[in-house]
Amino acid sequence: MSEFAIDVHGLRKEFGGKIAVENVDLQLPKGEVWGFLGPNGSGKTTTIRMLSGLLSPTAGTGTALGYDILTESEEIKARMGYMTQKFSFWTDLTVRENLEFVARLHLIDDVASVVSATIRTLDLQDRQDQLAGTLSGGWQQRLALAAVTMHGPDLLLLDEPTSGVDPLARRDFWDQIHRMTEERNMTALVSTHYMDEAERCDQVVYMSRGRLVAKGTVAEMIANSGLVTFRADGPGVRKLMAALKRASGVEHVAYFGAALHVSGTDRSLIERTIGELRSQNIEWREVVPNLEDAFIALTQKAGVAGERSA
Amino acid sequence: MTIPGWIRRSGAIFLKELTQMRRDRLTFAAMLAIPVIQLVFFGYAINSDPRHLPTAVHAEDSSPIVRSLLHGFQNSGYFDLSRTCDALPDCDHLLSSGEVTFVIHIPVGFTAALVAGRRPELLIEADASDPVAASSALGYAESIVSSALRNDLTGSLAGLQVGREPYGLVIHPRYNPEKKTQYNIIPGLLGVILTMTLVMITAIGMTREVERGTMENLLVLPARPGEVMIGKIAPYLGIGAVQTVLILIAANFLFGVPFSGSVEILALGLINFALANLALGFSFSTIARTQLQAIQMTFLFFLPSILLSGFMFPFRGMPGWARGIGELLPLTHFLRVVRGVMLKDASIRDLQTDFLALLAFTIFVTGIAMFRYRRTMD
């Protein structure tokens, strides 16, 4: 059996001739938590749906948990937990009824006690008789997590599980994910837009325009982006924004509170630009690019590449 | 003993549907109230033998004989002598405006001519624009007249009796044609109501999952198409059973429809028919993308079911092609079963063609549903 929980090659998906995902290779080692990043519409959901058997790939092969994603999707479904981007449990059933339904479909023998244990673990006791549709976003997400992990899956596919959830609930959620992956040697692929969540992952992959364009740890991603970032501080610094955006060597400028982050991949060009713009009251210093800088650079680079190839 | 997985998974879906159904109180109540309301509405409303039709009298003669003649009309129940008109134009107006359906003309000297044995003419003008409404009342007019007169033409006038043949003494016939209409309509309504509610409720079953976004979840859970279908239609089989009992009770108590045949055969027919409709509804819901489309498909099927099944119009009166379409509809076969069992004490042998047709229909649409059920979101 493969040491990878997910091992796919050349995945491709077309919708009516339009390519949504192309040439996706992904090897996800067992027991690791990977982040799946990329802008909206880059193909993350399509990829996750292909991995879960919800969509059949137009081309490509691979396995999930050792089962062929093309022919053995029933086996995969039984051992996988998939949390959809949009809350997709039954809003007219209570928390407990939703969990009981899922438990029965998974042929869990002692439905009542397994559901009760799950409810305790995820601290849903006070809400178990509440209709799922009346739960707040954070509690809905907790119900969804309970439902997709109750049968003890070996693989979790979570599609933007924390969108629209407050920071405290997000932190709880990630604590649960890490607890479960450690306790059960579970593997997880989690798509997200949050940089702090990406930093909680063993590795991250970055998708843009239907292709995986980068892979590695957060530190590697930053290093590999080849990005040089300078921070400009001082009164009136924001007025430089327009000039910086046009300046050579500057690939992206972002507000950071009162400061600006100016990034580019060509150190000499960017340093010359800064030299030209240097003035008395603005302080410039080089900083370590953060993941967000790296991702914005990746997105722009992929965009330029995409336009060139188009 | 271990219960097979497919039964457990079907059961899981069954319980979920049942819980959702119970929670949707309005729909649940509607499914139980609709049959009764429809039955009462249509049972009383659909009537090809209308009575108490407004009638005007244009009497140019007056005598005890004329009065008893008019009493005869009134007492028949078919004619409601609510108006009189003195001049002919007034009579015409009443008829053309639709205020009355009939005008009875008693000519000048009617009594004298009658007593003298000159066979005077009695004219009944009818508004035949709705031939059904007028025809049965007119059909009784002659016997009304003869039996009304018979009571007066006694003693020395006995020799003047208009007809020599003995007419029935009672104007009101013993076998009640009005009831006969309903004997036919009420069992048919059972089929019509089951068709509408069962097809529609299952037709929206899968599309509702798609529209609410729960389909994605259902697809990643380990439930196979057949299990989803069984779990989804089973609760409605129960609903259909309750509807049937309600309708049969109403048929008996409100309309006095007799039940001359075997309950077992009718139950068998009902299960066959309900399964055919549920399977059809489920296959609609695998084809339609939205609940609205599913409802439209239901109506597309419902209309020919009503018009070509023999419910509304006599099946034998339809042209061959229409009968051909009718033979493809489950309602056609169910109507033969339910009318046969309730009214004619039909045996299973009498009805075997219809049972086989219902079964074939169920298998066919189940095949479509299994073929069309999307196991992926492609």
From TrEMBL, chain A:
<dbReference type="GO" id="GO:0016887">
    <property type="term" value="F:ATP hydrolysis activity"/>
</dbReference>
<protein>
    <submittedName>
        <fullName>ABC-2 type transport system ATP-binding protein</fullName>
    </submittedName>
</protein>
<dbReference type="Pfam" id="PF00005">
    <property type="entry name" value="ABC_tran"/>
</dbReference>
<dbReference type="GO" id="GO:0005524">
    <property type="term" value="F:ATP binding"/>
</dbReference>
<dbReference type="InterPro" id="IPR003439">
    <property type="entry name" value="ABC_transporter-like_ATP-bd"/>
</dbReference>
<dbReference type="InterPro" id="IPR027417">
    <property type="entry name" value="P-loop_NTPase"/>
</dbReference>
<keyword id="KW-0067">ATP-binding</keyword>
<dbReference type="InterPro" id="IPR017871">
    <property type="entry name" value="ABC_transporter-like_CS"/>
</dbReference>
<feature type="domain" description="ABC transporter">
    <location>
        <begin position="6"/>
        <end position="234"/>
    </location>
</feature>
<dbReference type="InterPro" id="IPR003593">
    <property type="entry name" value="AAA+_ATPase"/>
</dbReference>
<keyword id="KW-0547">Nucleotide-binding</keyword>
TrEMBL record, chain B:
<feature type="transmembrane region" description="Helical">
    <location>
        <begin position="297"/>
        <end position="315"/>
    </location>
</feature>
<keyword id="KW-0472">Membrane</keyword>
<keyword id="KW-0813">Transport</keyword>
<feature type="transmembrane region" description="Helical">
    <location>
        <begin position="26"/>
        <end position="46"/>
    </location>
</feature>
<comment type="similarity">
    <text>Belongs to the ABC-2 integral membrane protein family.</text>
</comment>
<dbReference type="GO" id="GO:0005886">
    <property type="term" value="C:plasma membrane"/>
</dbReference>
<dbReference type="GO" id="GO:0140359">
    <property type="term" value="F:ABC-type transporter activity"/>
</dbReference>
<keyword id="KW-0812">Transmembrane</keyword>
<keyword id="KW-1133">Transmembrane helix</keyword>
<feature type="transmembrane region" description="Helical">
    <location>
        <begin position="355"/>
        <end position="373"/>
    </location>
</feature>
<feature type="transmembrane region" description="Helical">
    <location>
        <begin position="265"/>
        <end position="285"/>
    </location>
</feature>
<dbReference type="InterPro" id="IPR013525">
    <property type="entry name" value="ABC2_TM"/>
</dbReference>
<feature type="transmembrane region" description="Helical">
    <location>
        <begin position="233"/>
        <end position="259"/>
    </location>
</feature>
<dbReference type="Pfam" id="PF12698">
    <property type="entry name" value="ABC2_membrane_3"/>
</dbReference>
<feature type="transmembrane region" description="Helical">
    <location>
        <begin position="185"/>
        <end position="206"/>
    </location>
</feature>
<dbReference type="InterPro" id="IPR051449">
    <property type="entry name" value="ABC-2_transporter_component"/>
</dbReference>
<protein>
    <submittedName>
        <fullName>ABC-2 type transport system permease protein</fullName>
    </submittedName>
</protein>
<keyword id="KW-1003">Cell membrane</keyword>
<feature type="domain" description="ABC transmembrane type-2">
    <location>
        <begin position="138"/>
        <end position="376"/>
    </location>
</feature>
<dbReference type="InterPro" id="IPR047817">
    <property type="entry name" value="ABC2_TM_bact-type"/>
</dbReference>
